[in-house]
Amino acid sequence: MPHHAPSQDRSWHALSPEVALTALDATPEGLSEHEARARLGRHGPNRLQQGQGRPAWRRLLAQFNNLLMLILLVAAAASLALGHALDAIAIAGVVLIIALIGFLQEGKAEQALERIRDMLSPRAQVLRDGRRHEVDAEALVPGDIVLLESGDRVSADLRLLEARRLRHEEAALTGESTPVDKAIDAVSEESELAERGSMAYAGTLVVQGSARGLVVATGERTEIGRISELLRGVETLRTPLLRQLDRAGRVLGLVITVMAVLTAAFGVLVHDEALGEMFMAAVGLAVAAIPEGMPAIVTIGLALGVQAMARQRAIIRRLPAVETLGSISTIFSDKTGTLTRNEMTARAIWLPDGEIRLTGSGFAPEGTLHEVHEGEALVAPLDLADHPALRHFLEVGVLCNDAEIARDEGRWHIHGDPTEGALVVAAAKAGLVAGELRGDHDRHDAIPFESERQYMATLHAVDGEPWLLVKGAPDRLLARCHRVRTATGDAALDLEAWQARLHALSAQGLRVLALAEKPADEIDALADEHAEDGLVLLGLVGLQDPPRDEAVAAVRDCLTAGIRPVMVTGDHAVTAQAIARQLGFLHTDRALSGREIEAMSDAELEEVILEVDVYARASPEHKLRLVTAMQAQGGVCAMTGDGVNDGPALKRADVGVAMGVQGTEAAKEAAEMVLADDNFATIVGAIREGRKVYDNIRKTITFLLPTNGAQGLAILIAVLAGSVLPVTPLQALWVNMVVAVTLGLALAFEPGERDLMRRRPRDPDAPLLDLFLLWRVVFVSILLLLGVFGIFSWLFNGQGESLALARAAAVNMLVTGCAAYLINSRFLHRSSLSVEGLFGSRPVWIAIALGMLLQLGWTYLPIMQRVFGSAALGLSQWLAILAIAVAIFLAVEMEKGVRRRLHRRGDASGDRGGASARKDARNDERAEAR
Fold first, then answer.
1. CA distance 252 to 257
2. Is position 334 annotated as part of the catalytic site?
């Protein structure tokens, strides 16, 4: 082992920071990239051996663990006992094929979700070559210096080197649910795990403060040994929809089994049929009527939806979210970085002596500063040497700041918060270098920014004297300032004048920060009370973060789809309203502040929640109340969040949405969905995809059930009438298999319909199969039944053909009729009699081609004829089958047309009736509120 390799037995918590650094041959500035790569090669990736998933053989055996498979296996055994060896082999073969279909589909779904898990891999902020970098947590090595902030999940065991108001939640390690304080002081070597305050262990969560730590153990050598908990991303495949289908399948299976037994008994007792023949008829009825392929097809449909959302940068962590997305009626969204570009640029600075404007945009330190006279910026750039107050303002903005700018591959990037980065860029435009400033003014302590306090404070040595520097929300800081620093000295603060300047900047859509300071002669360690009073205001800075172009279009799509976007931001109300108007929000005349929300009762908040689209100066606790109020009004909510304290609101929301770029690990773990690009448009795209997935599942179920219904009815009617079965149990099995393996999968690949985002949100309590779809299932089942009996009777009774040929025609009629109905099913309401409807889906025609190829093999291959008791068809029989299939297609299209006309007539009569119009308006208002 190399000399700097960590020892699992070494008591790092008992060593001082300096000794720990020496032991690992590390420095406070971090390792070099070359050394980090070398250590990674020696120690291996920072990961544990992942637990093996369900083995393939167990997944295959699980396919037989359902009622239908048990019925079929019993039928195969009984057939063998009755001397029908060929039937028994055929039944067993088809059972195996159906099991393989489910096995392969589940395998694809699990692989797709495993790829999604990989996208949720944690990241870590490290110092390498003295610069801040973001790396995969797996790349951490002993000796790395890791930076921690509130909300971070620790990715390796760390010996703390710096800790500022640091508190950790260590329940995953110690079982202690209360957060514990951390410090850098060494503790006794005999200290229990929960008492090692100088350590930050892998898997624990930073709930407050910030820190720097030295990596002392990675991977399997960590204390907790469970970094894989960071990847508990995508949950089980059993969603509420699948559980509902499972329950319905079990009930349907039992009902059909009872009906099959009663039908067989009826044939024996009433028609004096042979027991063995009626037993096979009962088996055929059970096999025909139960849609055994449906759960597997729905599962693959959900998995395809998850994959499609991931391609659009929306990572689904919990599959039920796919179903819920189609019901979303309100999206509570953060502003910065989600509705806006998160490319903060300082545009204006207000000092006591006047306004300064800055040119340039983005994170590149390219631009100039200009004085403003009579509302216009002077052409000539100012000289910083002539403006000591501006220089001091910019220096404070850099010192009370944790962000850094860096240039990688020709592009400028911000390491840290973009808002803080904008202040560093503004100083760089004036010629100030952040690294030099921070090196000349040591930081002795800091109070990190937290959403509850809405400011950051640092303690520095300035010209040899200790000073407290503060940066934060202007309304919070103005209330704590009584004086302002001018060129001639401190003066009384004119609160009204500064509030007018704040309003003027906010009205331009700028995010405003205030900077202040005060002497800190007797302060050794900062506390919140030190920044609560006696501050001297230095000035205001207005930061521009323009709306995303795609967010403007996404808001428009939301409103068209009956979804209400609501902005929840920590910014000033005037700024938030200005951005909301640019984005196209509906209700922007009024904005509620966090203080107004706090002053309201729950009932009062529920009253105004339908009328206000902008909430400013809002904290995570306010988010929780907003979600609860909207849900009390019947809304189905999505809520975005990025901080550790957003967890309760994310969990309360119907779909919690965490930010993948700026979001903390705590927020990601609380959310159902993670945005890889922090973009509001991605949420809307995921809702569109969720609507499409649910639409396609309904289409798939509506397509599959008539096949089973027609087969089951055909066998039932034949037994009750005492006539010959038009389809044998083996043939019914074949039809189910062909439909499941080819036709049934096609609709899962359907693109969304044109009006998908012009519909109102789906009622989450609405049944999967409503009365309309039940009617469609019954109607098409009868059409297919008539087709099957018609072709069978024509050939067997009318033409005197053999029973084998008549049954072959009946089976082909059933599959061909289903193929025709598959084209109908592409649109539940719209007509398929168009070029788009008939030929607009490659998957549908590929499925039809595969299905018909299987049918041709089934019809003409001698071995298939012997096994299934079929015979070759002639051209005239195929033409008859095709004609009936076309008739079924046209009949369904006629039914669609009648329903569309009735719907339009109902709308027209509603418009003529005043009372109906008023009722519709009220319904629209309620739908919009939701």
1. 8
2. yes
